Amino acid sequence: MKRLSKSAYKEVRTWIYRNARPLELALWQFCFEGGTREHVMEMLGFYQNEDGGFGNAVEPDCWNTESSPYAVLVVTGMLRRIGFTDSNHPVLRGMLQYLDSGAHVSEDGWNFSIPSNDAYPRAPWMTYDASVNRVQDMGISAGLCTFILRHGDRQSGLYAKAINLSGRILDKMKRTEDFGEMGAGGIGMLVQALEACGLGQRFDCGSVKAMLPGLVNRSIERNPDHWASYTPRPSEFIWSPDCPFYPGNEEVVDLELDYLVDTRNPGGVWNITWTWFGLGEQYPKEFAISENWWKALKAIEKLSFLEAFGRMDR
User: Fold this and answer.
1) Residue 98 bridge partners (DSSP)
2) Source organism's superkingdom (predicted)?
3) Environment class of residue 295 by beta-carbon count within 10 Å: exposed (0-12), middle (13-18) or buried (19+)?
4) Which of 80, 145, 181, 217 gives a 20 to 30 Å CA spacing to 73?
């Protein structure tokens, strides 16, 4: 059983302080140094637009300044990471305002990519594509419905929309085999939110929950030889020993924990597992910057994973 040593932790910390954006530095400080949620929220505010949504490369693979549903979803993940639950905070109120605006949403949910992405430096998968949206929108919408159910006004039209969309998403889940990259995780969170709202029986969440372990298990790439490429590792679905998907996956989680200890770059952090391919040649400077931003984000995720399983000394 391998562990990330104190000296390795210090090397990662030094890299973060030398390279991370103020936003990721605030997340680092919250996760490992007693930093405050309020400081993270302050940094997030610099990426929020007047319409309440987010853009401005808060998600480093898309430098579009326009607000998008996917950028808002990315921020909901940061809020979960810091355990921020103040639904009356201006940042959260703005996010709900944006989601209620009708921007980039159809009867099937919110869109993954938006047309204005194409005018900005971006990863190729952020290029607007309606056919890709038809697959990816399920996971995006599940995550955004979860946010609305947790923080929205129960008497609002937006809350009613989230309930209606939740039913469509869960119905679609039973009829499709392609859940998109974010589908399994998004549906898992959505089911928890529906149960917390007292809507579990209405949407037959019990049967959906019974399907999720199989869906997650089929999604996990179990061969460490493939983990240097962009592929879903166990940590995409299992964040701690308390995760409901951990039982039965103990061995592959241990493999990934060992893998992380072994594959960190000496004196620094881990490489990311993707490029912008042809668009990286079109935007080489922007990709180099994005890559560093991602390295900081992924270092925080990896150290949190190691720490959750007792594999890190600091």
Assistant:
1) none
2) Bacteria
3) buried
4) 217
Position 227 confidence tier, pLDDT thresholds 50, 70, 90: very high
pLDDT at 157: 98
pLDDT in tens, 197-220: 999 999 989 998 998 999 899 999
Residue by residue, DSSP assigns 172-217 as HHTT-S---TTHHHHHHHHHHHHHHTT-TTTTTHHHHHHHHHHHHH
Provide the 8-state DSSP code for 116: G
The CA distance from 290 to 312, in Å, is 27
Q: Using 50, 70 and 90 to split pLDDT, how confident is the model at 164?
A: very high
268-285 mean pLDDT? 98
Contact (Cβ atoms closer than 8 angstroms) between residue 19 and residue 270: no
Confirm if 91 and 133 have CB atoms less than 8 A apart: no
The Cα–Cα gap between 104 and 21 comes to: 28
Contacts of 262 by beta carbon, 8 Å cutoff, 6+ apart? 2
Listed as own residue / partner, the contacts of 26-32 with beta carbons closer than 8 Å and 24 or more positions apart are 27/78, 27/81, 27/82, 27/297, 27/300, 28/296, 28/300, 30/81, 30/82, 31/81, 31/300, 31/303, 31/304, 32/303, 32/314
- Judged on CB neighbours under 10 Å (0-12, 13-18, 19+), 183 is buried
Query: How big is the chain by its Cα radius of gyration, in Å?
Result: 19
Residues in the chain: 314
Q: Supply 143's token pair.
A: 């995550």
Most distant CA pair in the chain, distance: 54
* Separation of first and last alpha carbons in the chain: 17
Would you say 138 and 169 are in contact if contact means Cβ atoms under 8 Å apart? yes
Question: In 3D, which of 210, 113, 111, 97 has the Cα closest to residue 151?
Answer: 97
